[in-house]
Write a structure and sequence with these properties.
Elements: H1 2-9, E1 12-24, E2 29-33, E3 38-45, E4 48-52, E5 55-59, E6 63-67, E7 73-77, E8 83-94, E9 97-98, E10 103-104, E11 108-110, H2 115-124, H3 131-155, E12 159-160, H4 165-176, H5 184-191, H6 195-206, H7 210-228, H8 233-239, H9 245-256, H10 260-267
Antiparallel strand pairs: 1-8, 2-7, 3-6, 3-8, 4-5, 4-7, 6-11, 8-9, 10-12
């Protein structure tokens, strides 16, 4: 089993999308959220609740939450205080599947010594201006995840289980073909199953229907490119499968509340030379 785990991690894919250190007032709340990327929330001040399924967990200073991709969750204040937290959205995969599809991880861990953890978050949220900066940031993301895994191992709460290789191929196929129209029939054929069965299976594994998953992935990818790269908006549009500027702008505003231009102005982390 140990050698299987090592082989599994030899095919590791990691990418940082966005994050920040933020001070939030009582308006910070979200219900029945479902993201295609995984999240880390690290509470440094204040108190909140994060609810997964029917269980609410207290968000306290020093508590690191890990919310896997596709997890339906809610978050909200429990009183009139402010919440201060580090947060990051990321993808960590092996064999085309998110790591949490192979490992059962707890939703939170209490940090005994958070110096290294804070160093990781601070490094992750620095603006990048070069490829080497991006590589160093992904290295810090891996370090952050390794800190979390070490706590899981100490607590005896890390468990490995086998994944579904055929389903992994479907996720890889989606990621490689975001620049064109994808159909449920096409994806179901990759697993040699009926489309109706495929939809039920996909929702069971990811927490959302195939079309919603694909659109969420397209939205998150476009947000990351707008925020972290100088890629022209027309190129981003084509990369996620849109050929019409108006359709892309409508899609992006519907999912984010911003036009692509507004989003880039508001959230870009590019260093202007």
């Amino acid at each position: 089993m140990q050698s299987e785990i090592f082989d599994h991690f030899s095919n590791l894919f990691v990418v940082y999308y966005y994050g920040s250190y933020i001070h939030l007032d009582q308006t910070w709340r979200g219900y029945n959220q479902n993201c295609v990327f995984s999240k880390f929330y690290y509470i440094t001040d204040g108190e909140c609740e994060i609810k997964v399924g029917d269980t609410a967990y207290r968000g306290l200073p020093g508590r690191l939450f890990y919310i896997p991709a596709g997890t339906n969750h809610s978050f909200y204040h429990t009183n009139d205080n402010y919440i201060t937290k580090h947060w990051v959205h990321f993808k960590l995969e092996t064999g085309g599947e998110s790591v949490d599809k192979r490992y059962r991880l707890p939703l939170f861990a209490d940090m005994k010594d958070d110096k290294n953890l804070l160093d990781c978050f601070e490094a992750l949220n620095r603006p990048c201006s070069s490829l080497s900066d991006e590589l160093r940031r992904n290295t810090k993301l891996l370090e952050l995840f390794s800190i979390y895994l070490s706590i899981c191992e100490e607590n005896g709460s890390l468990f490995y289980f086998a994944g579904n290789d055929d389903f992994s191929k479907v996720l890889q196929y989606i990621k490689a073909n975001l620049n064109r129209k994808l159909t449920v029939t096409e994806l179901a054929a990759l697993m040699h199953v009926h489309p109706n069965y495929f939809i039920r299976m996909f929702k069971n594994k990811t927490g959302m229907a195939p079309v919603r998953y694909i659109n969420s992935l397209r939205c998150e990818l476009s947000k990351s490119l707008l925020e972290n790269t100088p890629t022209p908006i027309n190129s981003i549009m084509q990369e996620i499968g849109f050929e019409d500027n108006s359709a892309f702008s409508h899609f992006f505003r519907h999912n984010t509340g911003y036009s692509p231009i507004e989003f880039r102005k508001q959230f870009t982390k590019l260093i202007i030379q």
